[in-house]
Amino acid sequence: MLFRSLIVDAGGRIEYANPAVQAVFGEAPAALRGKALLPLVPARLREGRGSTFRDYLDSCRLPAGSWNQIETQFTHTNGHEFPAEVSAAGMQVEDREVFLLFVRDITARKQAEAALEAARSAAEASSLAKSQFMANMSHELRTPMNGVLGMTEILLQDTLAPRQREYLENIRRASQ
Predict the structure, then answer these.
(1) What is the reported pLDDT for 66?
(2) What is the pTM (predicted TM-score) of this model?
């Protein structure tokens, strides 16, 4: 697996992007250098998180000196958004704060999770339908069977030929 890494300054400008980053963002590393990272995050996800990169990082709880992992979304240069997992660490380098980011496109994982959830929901719906069917069938069979048993009991109280009694006893045993 290729590491897609970026070094971003405290102002949110990309200082370094390794070659693997092009696969997720669609731009060559050289084209990314100097660009602001925050505009690559869809605007709806930036709302209410402040206007600077530092505000955004603080809202994601990425303090300097520790590794954190978040899920977010980025926008590819072709305009489509993709889910991403970002491992980030803030650190001091030559008296300035920078952030090392490892970005992983998790589209396939999210699709697999959605498919798994759909399969689980379908299995639960199937199980519920089966349970309801069995309950209905049990009720539908039990009601007429009680009638057969009741009539059999009444007939067994009459004077019957041995063969007739044997047939009715067989009906009663099978019905119970």
Answers:
(1) 61
(2) 0.64
Tokens of 79: 């305009």
Strands 96-105 and 5-9 come out as: antiparallel
Do 57 and 49 touch, CB atoms closer than 8 A?
Answer: no
Rounded to whole angstroms, the Cα distance separating 132 from 91 reads 59
DSSP assignments along 74-113, one per residue: EE-TTS-EEEEEEEEEEEEETTEEEEEEEEEE-HHHHHHH
- Annotate 21-53 with DSSP letters as a single string: GHHHHSS-HHHHTTSBSGGGS-HHHHTTS-SSH
* Bridge partners, residue 68, by sequence: 88
Per run of 10 residues, the mean pLDDT along the chain (length 176 residues) is 82 91 90 89 78 67 64 88 88 86 91 95 94 87 85 89 90 85
Going from the C-alpha of 76 to that of each of 6, 28, 60, the distances in angstroms are: 15, 12, 21
Contact criterion met (CB below 8 Å) for 37 and 12: yes
Please report the sign of the dihedral spanned by the C-alpha atoms of residue 17, residue 63, residue 73, residue 120: positive
CA distance 99 to 65: 9
Is the Cβ–Cβ distance between 74 and 24 less than 8 Å? yes
Tokens standing for residue 169: 């006893």
